[in-house]
């Protein structure tokens, strides 16, 4: 019934086994050892927290554990033989034994239950499903164990430890006859709802009597009649272990929803069951139980998480009370004084002082890295990410940047102050010392030394106080199962603190072997994870160039890779390098270096030989420079971030071919901005040079060998013309000249970065046309290899394709301006064909684009570089002209367009006249239209006095010369239909004469049957729409004007309509009437009518002027006792003040003269052939909450609109509440048949396609598979 009631939340699931959060370099990280509690947790497989809690309870039930271990292989078999045919191997108890041995003896933080769940027969989906109850699992697991232990000495294990008997008695009050029935139990299910404690629930179960009296009498077997009787229950036999299952989850059948009882429900640590037993003459020890396990459920009825509080009866774990409880009073006082003094000096916005104060207040003077964030939140009230991450970065980076204050110890798992760092020995012994010192304190605080409680939450095990159990009396996190044991069950002294007690020797050997394997894995992993790869750079293989370290040669002989343990000291590393470099003489300095684009740079030197590499901040792939600490090849080397070198691109004028040169300092330079060699034009030569960041600009000029008169310029990013920088395709670029004062500033002060360009110019450079100076800005104009345009000559000649191909000629020319005369000179052999030529671009499809303006530059004309231009016969437009295509009469087709050049200032009328003159047409009944996006004739150019530039007509656009005068502005063409009521025509067909209008309509119908449409109203063809023509009207006209113009249509001229208010106009969409146009004086533009919108007119018997919130509904009263309706009527419902169902019901009641409470309403849905009932139920809202907005029928889910059909049932005379008619049933049957046909078609396509649709998995109850051992 509860489905996935106990599904585990994701955030409460599997806890990572990594204690430090480190990432392994290679291989899988071994499981971490046990924590300070010395107890082992159980891994969560994704949704097995309920199983983990129950298994831990059974483990800490010593009698159950020892009984299970007493079963040897001779009775259970061996797991190695489970796959052999005919072998009887009891897999479940064997796997349970092995799991218990691992939990007791193997040194790991958590054990896996994968083998155990496999023995249950659970697959991965059942394991990760998590939708099961721990109370259900308790019964199923005990049943599986009983079946698995049949025929062994442990066959009565569950019965002896957990089996009890309840006696149900019924006493006849007439004759005193007692009828008894015994009932076995393994756990007691006690009620939570309506009771406040466990004792009260047991009192109601076993002390209170249930009476059979009144209408509920009991038939006595001795009296042979119905008599008054009393029913009661008593505990007849008590088991050694009593399990209480609390009914926390219930189902509310009134609200049809699940809920969890979260009220207070107390339970004692010790309970006496004597009042609830049948025999009470034994000693108190036979009835007294003490609590030793509490399984807790956290969450609600739709999801949650289980964990367990367990009392360590055999004292297997090391219990640690909270810090505030285990410190002596003197230490507490000292701690409070330190806290007060530190808080006084604490600066709220200074993370350095906050973290320092947090570490100083710790007893061990260190904090786990994983816990530092939580302690910071407890201290400041906000997290690091929310308060300090934006200005200071991640907390780990902040600690590294303050290495003078903080130091990482314990292999990087803890952070301490550098003034008092912890040694590994001190850090390792701290927990044991703290535990030893805390023992007397715990006893002095009144906590019994043998009452050690732990919280086992999957992989996590923590110590708790006994008083913490009371916190689980109530709330979303509350007790769910209680486990009691008899107080007379004493444990032998040799079992205390001895996890190997009564554990079989082969399991002890298995655990020892596994511990050795884990220890070896941890050592190997620790060594691998603490090994860093260092890159050593030796000083003899480097030289300094402009203050930058550069390798002497490109061979990698000066760099050595070294693998080293980061836990060792700097002195150990220095000795190792001494041994590697036997010929090294003198002092050896190790300096942290970094490879930058300009070269190798040095930072801080490692001077303290006693510091480990980890504490010194040395990580893998760190570069170290090995030198004497003073000079390299006789030159001093500057270290530190302020001297970081910068790689600059030095740009110089160049006047020869573009070939690569070898610079003086080994840096390649290349001329990228020269033109073709035949032109001999100037270019720029670039070379990459590195300089120390602390060098001044004047020192850079001297290093380049330039005189003091030379100018140094920085590329002006915003000064580029056309997006082309110097050397990036030619063109022009702007450079800013450094003023004389900047010569004394360093490269860092000038904010020069790697890759920045530096132009070096001598004074005579300005004699060239390439360089020009205006103030402090230098403009460089350079041609380039890529600034070419390929020109193809296309003469208009006759002949075959081969002859035309021979006449074509191509040339590749560099130039800055387009001048067709220049090309005529190039193609002088073909100039006789045509006197006028123009340049035209060719698009990707081979179509010629408009000619290029001769007066513009290449860039301004929009001509892209490295493209092809065609030299074609014809004139080129000037800058003030447009080149247009035009056609006459219809949309243009290939080869039918004509070209014309007109001024941009021409009006539409002047352009039209020029086009008509070009084709030899005359007259005034012409106008121009543009093409729309799909290359069809579009909207006309309405303003004939507007210029082409004002209408944003551009070169290359196509215009269509269309015959006819311009239509008026706001011109609409609206198709008009006539609404014909068929029911009225059927009534009038008995007459001998028809009205002229009806004769016209009928004539139109018979003449052209395609002009009629039938509208189905609730299953019958009650109306028909007939096309009567189109009206042409301005959108500024009013609705009254539209009605007047509609009546002028030939088909409707003989209709008798007194005034326009007797005519109703509908707007149609998809062949349906959707809305009525309202407002006689509202313009068609405000009514949002567009050209081509279908309209339908309907003649009325009375005037009508509907308001904006008045809805026209078709109402139909149901025929009592039949599945049909009376003929429909029209009702105008005013919803302006109230649009609720009550308002509609009141209007209908007034229309029919009935009571509103007797009416049942429904809206017809013609698409589904169904009726949607309009309920008068209103939701009850609490007084404390805001008043709920009344339900409007104009909104969802009904959306009442004009023309909707409303069905009405009078409940006073009609008991049938079903609105569906026979026609609706037929329509629904048709819809089902269509759906079935579509489904069969999809199935056929699926069977022919990829495969079948996967069926949905059925929900199954929890079960454990057990073999047959009888």
From TrEMBL:
Biased composition (Gly residues): 721-733
PROSITE patterns noted in UniProt: USP_1, USP_2, USP_3
Biased composition (Basic and acidic residues): 324-342, 1230-1242
Domain of life where this protein originates: Eukaryota
Gene Ontology CC annotation, any one: cytosol
Boundaries of every USP domain copy: 40-487
Transmembrane segments: none
Chain residue ranges for the region called Disordered: 1-39, 320-346, 422-446, 719-738, 1224-1256
Gene Ontology terms, MF aspect: cysteine-type deubiquitinase activity
GO annotation terms (biological process): protein deubiquitination
Stretches with biased composition (Polar residues): 429-441
Name of the protein this chain belongs to: USP domain-containing protein
């Amino acid at each position: 019934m509860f489905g996935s009631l106990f599904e585990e939340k994701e955030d409460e699931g599997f806890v990572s086994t990594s204690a430090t959060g480190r990432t392994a370099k290679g291989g899988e990280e071994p499981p971490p050892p046990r924590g300070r509690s010395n107890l082992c947790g159980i891994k969560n497989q994704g949704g097995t927290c309920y199983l983990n809690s129950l298994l831990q309870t059974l483990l800490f039930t010593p009698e159950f554990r020892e009984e299970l271990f007493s079963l040897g292989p001779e009775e259970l078999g061996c797991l190695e033989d489970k796959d052999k045919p005919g072998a009887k191997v009891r897999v479940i108890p064997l796997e349970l034994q092995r799991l218990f041995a691992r939990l007791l003896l193997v040194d790991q933080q958590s054990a896996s239950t994968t083998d155990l769940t496999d023995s249950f027969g659970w697959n991965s989906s059942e394991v990760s499903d998590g939708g099961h109850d721990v109370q259900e699992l308790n019964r199923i697991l005990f049943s599986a164990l009983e079946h698995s232990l049949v025929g062994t000495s442990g066959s009565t294990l569950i019965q002896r430890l957990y089996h009890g008997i309840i006696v149900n008695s019924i006493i006849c009050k007439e004759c005193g006859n007692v009828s008894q029935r015994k009932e076995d139990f393994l756990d007691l299910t006690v009620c939570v709802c309506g009771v406040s404690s466990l004792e009260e629930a047991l009192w109601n179960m076993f002390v209170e009597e249930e009476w059979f009296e009144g209408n509920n009498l009991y038939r006595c077997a001795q009296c042979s009649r119905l008599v008054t009787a009393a029913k009661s229950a008593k505990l007849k036999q008590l088991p050694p272990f009593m399990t209480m299952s609390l009914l926390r989850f219930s189902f509310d059948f009134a609200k049809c929803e699940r809920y969890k009882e979260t009220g207070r429900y107390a339970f004692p640590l010790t309970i006496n069951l004597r009042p609830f037993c049948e025999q009470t003459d034994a000693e108190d020890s036979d009835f007294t139980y003490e609590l030793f396990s509490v399984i807790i459920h956290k969450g609600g009825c739709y999801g949650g998480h289980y964990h367990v509080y367990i009392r360590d009866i055999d004292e297997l774990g090391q219990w640690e009370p909270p810090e505030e409880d285990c410190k002596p009073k003197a230490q507490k006082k000292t701690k409070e004084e330190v806290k007060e003094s530190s808080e006084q000096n604490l600066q709220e916005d200074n993370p350095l002082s906050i973290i320092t104060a947090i570490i100083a207040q710790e007893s061990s003077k260190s904090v786990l890295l994983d816990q530092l964030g939580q302690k910071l939140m407890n201290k400041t009230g906000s997290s690091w990410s929310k308060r300090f991450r934006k200005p200071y970065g991640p907390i780990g980076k902040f600690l590294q940047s303050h290495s003078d204050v903080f130091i990482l110890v314990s292999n990087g798992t803890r952070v301490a102050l550098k003034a008092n760092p912890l040694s590994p020995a001190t850090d390792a012994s701290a927990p044991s010392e703290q535990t030893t010192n805390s023992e007397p304190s715990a006893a002095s605080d009144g906590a019994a030394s043998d009452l050690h409680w732990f919280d086992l939450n999957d992989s996590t095990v923590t110590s708790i106080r006994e008083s913490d159990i009371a916190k689980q009396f109530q709330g979303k996190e509350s007790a769910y199962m209680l486990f009691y044991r008899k107080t007379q069950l004493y444990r032998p002294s040799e079992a205390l603190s001895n996890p190997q007690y009564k554990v079989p020797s082969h399991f002890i050997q298995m655990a020892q072997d596994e511990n050795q394997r884990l220890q070896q894995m941890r050592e190997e992993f620790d060594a691998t994870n603490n090994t860093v790869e260092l890159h050593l750079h030796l000083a003899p293989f480097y030289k300094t160039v402009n203050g930058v370290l550069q390798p002497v040669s490109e061979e990698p002989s000066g760099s050595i890779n070294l693998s080293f343990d980061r836990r060792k000291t700097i002195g150990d590393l220095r000795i190792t390098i001494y041994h590697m470099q036997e010929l090294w003489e003198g002092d050896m300095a190790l300096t942290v270096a970094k490879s930058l684009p300009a070269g190798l740079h040095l930072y801080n030197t490692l001077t303290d030989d006693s510091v480990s590499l980890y504490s010194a901040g040395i990580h893998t792939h760190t570069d170290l420079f090995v030198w004497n600490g003073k000079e390299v090849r006789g030159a001093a080397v500057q270290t530190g971030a302020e001297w970081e070198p910068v790689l600059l691109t030095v740009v110089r004028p160049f006047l020869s071919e573009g070939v690569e040169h070898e610079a003086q300092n080994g840096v390649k330079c290349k001329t990228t901005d020269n033109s073709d060699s035949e032109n001999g034009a100037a270019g720029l030569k670039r070379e990459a040079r590195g300089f120390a960041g602390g060098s001044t600009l004047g020192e850079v000029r001297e290093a380049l060998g330039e005189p003091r008169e030379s100018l140094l310029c920085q590329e002006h990013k915003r000064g580029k013309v056309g997006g082309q920088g110097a050397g990036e395709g030619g063109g022009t670029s702007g450079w800013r000249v450094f003023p004389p004062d900047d010569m004394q500033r360093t490269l860092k002060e000038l904010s020069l970065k790697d890759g920045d360009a530096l132009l070096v110019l001598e004074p005579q450079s300005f004699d060239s046309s390439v360089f020009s100076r205006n103030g402090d800005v230098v403009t460089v104009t350079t041609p380039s290899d890529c600034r070419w345009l390929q020109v193809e000559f296309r003469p208009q000649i006759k002949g075959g394709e081969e002859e035309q191909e021979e006449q074509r000629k191509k040339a590749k020319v560099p130039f800055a301006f387009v001048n067709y005369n220049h090309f005529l000179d190039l193609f002088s052999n073909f100039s006789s064909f045509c006197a006028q030529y123009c340049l035209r671009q060719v698009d990707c499809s081979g179509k010629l684009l408009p000619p290029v303006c001769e007066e513009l530059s290449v860039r301004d004309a929009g001509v892209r570089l490295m493209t092809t231009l065609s030299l074609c016969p014809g004139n080129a437009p000037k800058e003030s002209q447009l080149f247009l295509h035009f056609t006459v009469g219809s949309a243009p087709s290939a080869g039918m367009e004509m070209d014309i050049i007109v001024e941009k200032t021409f009006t539409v009328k002047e352009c039209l006249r020029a086009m008509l003159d070009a084709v030899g047409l005359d007259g005034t009944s012409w106008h121009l239209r543009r093409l729309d996006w799909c290359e069809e004739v579009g909207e006309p150019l309405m303003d004939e006095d507007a210029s082409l530039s004002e209408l944003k007509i551009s070169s290359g656009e196509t215009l269509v010369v269309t015959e006819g005068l311009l239509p008026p502005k706001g011109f609409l063409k609206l198709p008009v239909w006539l609404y014909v009521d068929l029911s009225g025509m059927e009534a009038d067909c008995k007459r001998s004469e028809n009205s002229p209008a009806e004769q016209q309509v009928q004539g139109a119908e018979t003449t052209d049957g395609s002009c009629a449409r039938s509208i189905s109203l609730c299953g019958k063809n009650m109306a028909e729409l007939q096309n009567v023509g189109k009206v042409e009207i301005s959108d500024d006209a009013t609705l009254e004007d539209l009605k007047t113009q509609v009546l002028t249509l030939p088909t409707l001229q003989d209709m008798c309509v007194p005034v326009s208010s007797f005519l109703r106009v509908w707007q149609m969409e998809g062949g349906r009437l959707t809305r009525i146009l309202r407002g006689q004086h509202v313009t068609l533009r405000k009514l949002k009518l567009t050209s081509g919108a279908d309209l339908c007119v309907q003649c009325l018997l009375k005037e009508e002027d509907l308001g904006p919130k008045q809805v026209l509904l078709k109402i139909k009263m149901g025929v009592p006792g039949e599945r049909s309706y009376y003929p429909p009527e029209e009702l105008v419902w005013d919803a302006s003040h109230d649009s609720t169902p009550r308002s509609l019901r009141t209007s209908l009641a007034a229309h029919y003269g009935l009571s509103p409470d007797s009416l049942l309403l429904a809206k017809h849905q013609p698409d589904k052939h169904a009726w949607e009932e309009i309920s008068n139920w209103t939701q009850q809202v609490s007084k404390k909450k805001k008043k709920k907005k009344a339900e409007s029928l104009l909104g969802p889910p009904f959306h009442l609109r004009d023309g909707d059909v409303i069905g009405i049932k009078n409940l006073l005379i009609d008991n049938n509440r079903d609105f569906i008619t026979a026609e609706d049933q037929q329509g629904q049957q048709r819809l089902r048949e269509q759906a079935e046909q579509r489904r069969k078609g999809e199935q056929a396509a699926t069977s022919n396609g990829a495969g079948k649709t996967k069926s949905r998995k059925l929900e199954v109850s929890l079960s454990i598979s057990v073999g047959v051992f009888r």
